Amino acid sequence: MKLSEARRIVLEAQGLGAQAGLPRRRGGALGVLERLGYVQIDTISVVERAHHHVLWSRTPGYAPADLDALVAERSVFEYWSHAAAYLPMRDYRFSLPRKEAFRSGRRHWHRRSSRARGWVLDRIRAEGALRSADFEQAKKPGPWFEWKPAKVALEQLFLEGVLMVAGRRGFQKLYDLTERVLPPGVDAREPDAREYAQHLVEAGLRAQGLASEAELCYQRRGVRRAVRAVLRELEEAGKVRRVRVEGGDEDDFVLAGTLEKPAARTEKRPAAVRILSPFDNLVIQRARLKRLFGFDYQIECYLPASKRRYGYFCLPVLWGDRFAGRLDAKADREARTLLVRGLHLELSAEDEKSFRPAFDEELGRFARFNGCA
């Protein structure tokens, strides 16, 4: 398969291609979540947080209130994907294997405190959804109390599935009993190992367009053998095809229907520019990004300032089907000004002339999204 065709398939699957065609606002945001399978929740707010940024990049007219509305109507929920994420409620049952692993003790997070768990649950049963801040601070010193016992209990109960996040106040989670958060009719049957692996394969290929076996198992423990078996089974049934992207040294898999879709008509208009989040679903698997797009990207906020090349929170800049460079930006919300600290392009002088008008348009749109004039 030609690299250009592989990129087209990936971008279309990700909702960043010419045929995205999603509805506006809340309906479009839900469509994006159901297509991607998750959006990562991020606490960094140098620019608008990653979960909103990812949805804005794909949804016409998106505003952060749209995601809040989806949470309130129980169309999406918070849990872990490869990291903390918003997930579509239709996939709730596929969060259950991880929850069972925490309940059974096969996975560990913090040591448990039965006393704190009981106290937390009693208060939530009696008072309704509560934040960590609604519990008293721990008085006892020591490293375990960097997180107070109630916070540890809340997060452990959340990971086990006893509690869910009912919403947020500011950016603080509101925890409530799962039975009070789950909407009626949600499928809550825990999938067996094969069902779970098939979900990872089919949902992963819908979201990624094409992917290697390892990429379908990204940050998932103990699923590789089951995923391999499902891939073999679906390939034998003609539902999945094996392809080799030019220049690659490993096989990728793609849903058979993807290869049968007609390519988008190529109109003679400038390629669009998209300023993406460092946690965007397209870029989060760094090795995959490098092999398919030739873009060697690393977020630098976790590095000491002396070791940063591109800036604290540099944003990948997609231009058509390639990455043009990185933007180091910060939203000064009081001054309603988007500060451009650096623009690091990887383009020829001739390409930069074509790139600039589309980039300027996207930069203005990005500024408005961040509440900047």
Explain the overall architecture.
Helix 2 (25-36) crosses helix 4, helix 5 (96-104) packs across helix 7 (149-160) and helix 6 crosses helix 7. Helix content is 39%, strand content 17%. It has 373 residues and is α+β, with helices and mostly antiparallel strands. The protein is globular, with a radius of gyration of 22 Å.
Distance, first to last CA: 44 Å
Helix content: 25-40%
- Percentage of β-strand residues: 15-25%
- Report the count of strand segments: 11
Question: What is the count of helical runs?
Answer: 14
**What would the average pLDDT be, to the nearest integer?**
92
Strand order of the largest sheet: 8-9-10-11
Oligomerization category of the chains in this entry: single chain
Q: Secondary-structure element order, as H and E?
A: HHEHHEEHHHEEHHHHEEHEHEEEH
- Which class do the helix and strand fractions yield? alpha+beta
Gyration radius, rounded: 22 Å
Uncertain residue segments: 141-146
Major sheet size, sense and barrel closure: 4 strands, antiparallel
> How does the overall form come out from the CA principal axes?
globular
